[in-house]
């Protein structure tokens, strides 16, 4: 699969790159994609939710009224869950939501996601670029040139580039990552994938094993 290499003005440079069919043209495995996205979303949960139960509430443990003869239900401590300000019954407790997923399944899911985007013709290859200083205005100019101004876009770099990353950080619809940080969720969540030339080798070598 060959794609033309564009510059940051959106014009063809006259060069083409050959994208590996083993990464960008496989039959997508929907179940692998589901498992990887499910794991990613589960890992976003902090799991720090907590409600105080009866034993953790500050309050007197004195029996608030006699057991019999009041005409109402028996009651013990004021910390009882049936009273206002009492402990919560079966409240949420801290929990680890992380899930284990086989590395081969994760690779298959990412290749499937890239193949889906490739079939949708939503992948662009752009020559490596840099900014003299971090400026959101410069990054917006690149988005306009590539026709991605009002679309969700994912830029994949070969190596971390602080100027490009900081220039994109204030833009809600765009994200800049390196090839080692790519995930199935981020691929599918974007309308367009912008691969910088320097990211191709690392991306393909990580996914073809």
TrEMBL record:
Alphabetized SUPFAM superfamilies for the sequence: Ribosomal protein L4
Pfam family, one: Ribosomal_L4
InterPro entries named among the record's database cross-references: Ribosomal_uL4 (IPR002136), Ribosomal_uL4-like (IPR013005), Ribosomal_uL4_dom_sf (IPR023574)
GO MF term list: rRNA binding; structural constituent of ribosome
Span list, region Disordered: 46-77
Subunit structure: Part of the 50S ribosomal subunit.
Official protein name in the record: Large ribosomal subunit protein uL4
């Amino acid at each position: 699969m060959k794609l033309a290499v564009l510059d940051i003005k959106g014009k063809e440079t006259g060069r083409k790159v050959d994208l590996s069919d083993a990464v960008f043209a496989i039959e997508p495995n929907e179940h692998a994609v589901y498992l990887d996205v499910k794991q990613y979303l589960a890992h976003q949960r902090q799991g720090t939710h907590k409600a105080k139960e009866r034993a953790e509430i500050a309050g007197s443990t004195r029996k608030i009224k006699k057991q019999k003869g009041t005409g109402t239900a028996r009651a013990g401590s004021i910390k009882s869950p049936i009273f206002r300000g009492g402990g919560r019954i079966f409240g949420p407790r801290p929990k680890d939501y992380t899930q284990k997923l086989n590395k081969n399944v994760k690779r298959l899911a990412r290749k499937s996601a890239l193949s889906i985007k490739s079939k949708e013709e939503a992948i662009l290859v752009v020559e490596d670029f840099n900014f003299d200083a971090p400026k959101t205005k410069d990054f917006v100019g690149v988005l306009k040139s590539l026709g991605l101004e009002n679309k969700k876009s994912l830029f994949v770099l070969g190596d971390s580039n602080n100027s490009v990353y900081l220039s994109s950080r204030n833009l809600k619809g765009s994200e800049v990552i390196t090839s080692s940080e790519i995930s199935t969720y981020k691929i599918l969540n974007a309308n367009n994938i912008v691969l910088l030339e320097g990211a191709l080798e690392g991306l393909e070598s990580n996914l073809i094993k």
